[in-house]
Amino acid sequence: MEMAYGDRWKKEIAAMQRVLAGFDMIEECKWGKPTYTAEGKNIVILIGFKEYFALAFARGALLADAKKLLVQLGQTQSGRVMKFTSVKDIRANEATIKAYVREAIGIAKLGLRVAPKKTSDFVVPAELTARFEKDTRLKKAFDALTPGRQRSWLYHIAQAKRPATREARIDKAKPVILAGRGFLERRSGAL
Length: 191
Description:
Blueprint: H1 10-20, E1 26-30, E2 33-38, E3 41-48, E4 53-57, E5 80-84, H2 87-92, H3 94-110, H4 126-134, H5 136-144, H6 147-158, H7 163-178
């Protein structure tokens, strides 16, 4: 299976596959990455990054994480990852990995899911509120976006520390929002 930085983490991938081999899961290729499923539900994904190798839990936010090893990457609500830099790291944490995977399988079998945040849970930056007051066309287009697309824009704009940067992000976002696309879809358009 092809994976970003796959050659760099070849030994770690093999070590993790050995750890996961004892579980009643199927290894499939999804998103170009080894993905382990149980009863058709994603449990974990092996992901190579430049600086580390990760075991990503599809519903990691629901795990107890007693050892505080799980990290949230980006704005994902449900997924969490365990980071590793060597086979030695994987071996040292093998018992914990297995415990977390067992728990993840149980969560998936129960059908538990992370409740998605509502758009109303995100703060609308003052600059965007002011722009909506001046530009009703932009406000209508934003309101017509799906909740996920709205959240993506709110998160992107609010992450800017300076008001001038938030204003610039709104300017760049406007044609994409008017086209009905979210932040992650911007490359297919004006940004």
